[in-house]
Amino acid sequence: RHRARYKSPGGPPWREMYRRRCMERLRSSRAKLLDRYRQAGDAACGAAPGALLVQEVMEQEWQELRDGLPGLRGEQPMEQMLEDPDELAVLEEIQQELILQEQSVIQEYEQSLRFDEECLNAMLDSLHAPDRVICPVCRKNNLTVKAHLVCCQCGLYISTQDMTEGKLRSLLESSLTEHSQRCLHSPEFTVTSGMEEEASLLMSCPV
């Protein structure tokens, strides 16, 4: 009967609850995971899979689950439980799923960094081009710059006074340069309205 319990489609009774709680804890620890990954730096590339947060999550959730369900072999810590090959297989399966989830979060973060870097480089390149200024909001279209307004196909529309492409390019370049001297992350540009409902271009940094 003991073996049949693990061979059944549902597996051991605590399996799904433990798996769900581990996944939820890992998702809620996204900021902690990325912070730990940034601190690891280049060393993270050569680290063993799941070395950042998975083991910690599994141990914390096992402790809470064991405390909440005394009947779940409540006297045994996780290390002793690993002696049972069937229970070990269940834990390894959950661990692999958590590792894949952790790696997915890191890959998404790396892709976001690469995209920001590419967009920033494209924007900086455009600032040196004499005939065009790329819209800092959509990062795709060329801005239309006139003395009384700056607009873009993406919907950006800002009233200005005596604005020229050269002046706007200089303002953007100086702001980006000043930010890059203090922060490695790419700033974001949005259009915001002030007290008098006049649109303004706002540069902010998520970090």
TrEMBL record:
Main subcellular location: nucleus
Annotated localization: Nucleus
Protein name: RIP protein
Species this protein is from: Aegithalos caudatus
InterPro entries assigned: RIP, RPA_interact_C_dom, RPA_interact_central, RPA_interact_N_dom
Gene encoding the protein: Rpain
Domain RPA-interacting protein central per the UniProt entry, residue ranges: 53-123
Domain of life according to the entry: Eukaryota
GO MF assignments: zinc ion binding
Domain named RPA-interacting protein N-terminal: residues: 1-40
Alphabetic keyword roster: Metal-binding, Nucleus, Zinc, Zinc-finger
Keyword DNA-binding: no
Keyword flag Metal-binding: yes
RPA-interacting protein C-terminal domain sequence ranges: 134-206
GO cellular component: PML body
Gene Ontology biological process terms in this record: protein import into nucleus
